[in-house]
Amino acid sequence: MTNATRVQLASIRVITEDIPRLVHFYEVLTGATPQYLTEDFVELVTPSATFAVSGSARVAFITTGTPRGGANSSAIVEFLVEDTSAVYEGLVAEFGDQLDVVQPPTMMPWGNVSALIRDPDGSLVNLYTPVTPEAWQLQHNRTPKPLNAQEVL
Predict the structure, then answer these.
(1) Most CB contacts within 10 A, which of 69, 103, 112, 148?
(2) What secondary structure does DSSP assign to 17-65, as a single string?
């Protein structure tokens, strides 16, 4: 590929039947202010990419394999967070028993602390923080770059 054909991930969009509920969840998670471009298309702009939410009517023109809210079972949305346990506890405080926890904060073999939850539509969401030098190095070679000054390279 030449530079003229460079590709960058700009956003991910999730389709839902309950826009306010899903937007609230991701607003609490990311701290981003929702930008309602229309009543059924919302963007939450984070430092590394945009997370968008829209209603199914917005994609009704797709007649084969039409995206449906709550039907995602093949992807995990991953968020690099400064402190997995703190973000997890904040979500527990906000949503209580309504938070669908798949795995509470756990040290992974590759050096990240990770919590796996489901959003209100059932999509998997991974919150992770690199904690070992190897995990920090791996994240340093990726986008987004590490969030804090604890990085040791």
Answers:
(1) 112
(2) S-HHHHHHHHHHHH-PPPEEEETTEEEEE-SS-EEEEEEGGGGTT--SS
Mapping DSSP to helix (H, G, I), strand (E, B) and coil, where does residue 140 land? helix
Tokens matching residue 138: 């791996």
Mean pLDDT value of segment 95-104: 97
Name the 3-class secondary structure at 12. Answer: strand
Look-up of token digits 């997890």: 88
The answer to whether the CB of 122 falls within 8 A of the CB of 107 is no
CB < 8 Å & 24+ apart, contacts of 23-31: 23/53, 25/95, 25/119, 25/120, 26/51, 26/53, 26/119, 28/90, 28/91, 28/94, 28/95, 29/79, 29/87, 29/91, 29/125, 29/127, 30/79
Comparison of pLDDT for 152 and 106, the residue scoring more: 106
Residues 75-90 have pLDDT tens digits of 899 999 999 999 999 9
